[in-house]
Amino acid sequence: MVASFSAAVFTFFLFTSLVANFTSAQQHKTSLPESDVDLLEFPLNLEYLEAEFFLWGSLGHGLDKEAPQLAEGGPAPIGGRKANLDTLINDVVLQFAYQEVGHLRAIKKTVKGFPRPQLNISAAHFAKIVDEAFEFKLNPPFDPYANGVNYLIASYIIPYVGLTGYVGAIPNLQSTKAKRLVAGLLGVESAQDAVIRGLLYERAGQKVLPYNITVAEFTSHISDLRNKLGKTGVKDEGLVVPLAQGPESKTHGNVIAGDENSVAYDRTPTQILRIVYGTGNETIPGGFYPKGADGHIARYFRH
User: Fold this and answer.
1) d(CA 125, CA 87)
2) Which of 256, 255, 259, 293 is nearest to 273 (CA)?
3) What are the C-alpha distances in Å from 155 to residues 13, 66, 197, 210, 215?
4) What is the pLDDT of residues 129-146, one digit of tens each?
5) In a designed cystine with 258, which of 22, 76, 195, 262 is the match (CB 3.0 to 4.6 A)?
6) Coiled-coil segments, which residues (predicted)?
7) Three-state secondary structure readout of 257-273
């Protein structure tokens, strides 16, 4: 009888402890101001995109094999495939891929998040972006997976947009916890962008085969397109710029993008949606997100 009573007491306290821990964990995720939750959930859209693009490019598979719990059953990306990369670039891209997996996990530890949205990372979509950037159709169509240079150019298209979003989010965050997380994410995203730009800058004057167009020209036209879609002036710069636009107006080289004081540009979620949808309109999905991005902010613009 005493043993049964002791077992019952132990079970009661064990159950109480588990409930308390669960409640604490739930409160841990919901203790942020609602606006902070929205601003932390929104970049999951970009992190999903980067994770899938880098995983497929380096390994030939995506989150469904590497970290299915983070994808949460979201639809498989359209068009991802293994890129034809040399050993160095593949190693760099693989590191980026696993960093993005960590970013997804870090955000989802802080806010509930949402399943992976439908993504389009097909060669055809990247070709469409490049054609729009140059305002004519390249022949043959640009293929991001064909070789290392093409893949780096395609990579130039993606992380920088998320980077500017983090810069724009920080002044609007209220809690120290959210600010710390976004600052940490921004640090790594900025480093990734610097590596991509550095590798491309090394090849700035190289012609991208089979086109008679240099790497620097690709970056300038892609940046111009993003500025056009974002509709808020210059917040994007290629690797080689007019002298007045270079650091302190003293160099055409522009390995790191920045404003007149070499401070990072910022973007709002509205501007980011215009760019990643490829429509110039935050209410009209398309581009990398055929069915639209997710999270409260993105859904708000679709209704």
Assistant:
1) 26
2) 293
3) 53, 20, 9, 19, 13
4) 999 999 999 999 999 999
5) 262
6) none
7) CCCCCCCCCCCCHHHHH
CB contact at 8 A, 174 and 36: yes
Question: Cβ(204)–Cβ(62) under 8 Å?
Answer: no
Using a 10 angstrom Cβ sphere, with 0-12 exposed, 13-18 middle and 19 or more buried, the burial of residue 186 is: buried
What pLDDT does residue 303 have? 75
In the chain, the N- to C-terminal Cα span, in Å, equals 63
Measure Cα distances from 111 to 49, 105, 114, 245, 258 in Å.
18, 10, 9, 39, 31
Please list the alpha-helical segments (H only) found in 111-205: 123-134, 148-157, 159-169, 176-201
Cβ pair 241, 247 in contact under 8 A = no
- Contact between 57 and 83 under an 8 Å Cβ cutoff? The reply is yes
CB-CB neighbours of 94 under 10 Å: 16
DSSP secondary structure letter of residue 78: B
Other CB atoms closer than 10 Å to residue 156's CB: what's the count? 21
Distance from C-alpha of 124 to C-alpha of 109, rounded to nearest angstrom: 34
Tokens of 80: 């991802």
- Chain segment 53-111, per-residue pLDDT in tens: 999 999 999 999 999 999 999 999 999 999 999 999 999 999 999 999 999 999 999 99
Regarding predicted confidence, which is higher, 22 or 265?
Answer: 265
Quick count: other Cβ atoms within 10 Å of Cβ 61?
14
Q: Judge whether residue 242 has pLDDT over 70.
A: yes
- The angle that helices 159-169 and 176-201 make with each other, rounded to 10 degrees, is 150
> Tokens standing for 238?
């290629």
Within 10 angstroms of residue 260's Cβ, the number of other Cβ atoms is: 10
pTM metric for this prediction: 0.89
Which DSSP state fits 256? S
